[in-house]
Amino acid sequence: MQTNITTQGNVTNVAFAGRLDTPASQEVGKAVEPVINNASGTIVLDCRQLEYISSSGLRIFLTIRKAASAQGGKVIVKGINGDIRSVFLMTGFLNLFEIED
After folding, report:
1. pLDDT for 68-79, tens place per residue?
2. Is the pTM of this model over 0.85?
3. Is 90 in contact with 53 (CB distance < 8 Å)?
């Protein structure tokens, strides 16, 4: 699992590549701590290369969303594939996040 974080102006892009499963979620959780601590801008969760997401991975997305909401920021989830879209639909996450293709 790879997580690449870049910031340009008021936009932070978090690009995920691989499988965001339970073992990877601990590493990813640590990697996104700076994003969670400074979530007042726009956060783009780029999922174009994300192959799989577990409940632990969903928890990370939710933590980022809660931090952004509390700090006046917003979260956009971009490029989810059909399998991940199904998971988002079943868990209600499609209603929680702004989704872009």
Report:
1. 999 999 999 999
2. yes
3. no
Q: Cα separation of 98 and 77, whole Å?
A: 6
Q: Are 68 and 96 in contact (CB under 8 A)?
A: no
For the domain covering 2-100, report its CATH number.
Answer: 3.30.750.24
Strands 11-20, 2-8: pairing kind = antiparallel
Strands of the sheet containing 74-78, edge to edge, are 2-8, 11-20, 42-53, 74-78, 98-100
Q: Are 62 and 96 within 8 A, CB to CB?
A: yes
Question: Where would I find the H helices in 1-99?
Answer: 22-31, 33-37, 55-71, 82-91, 93-96
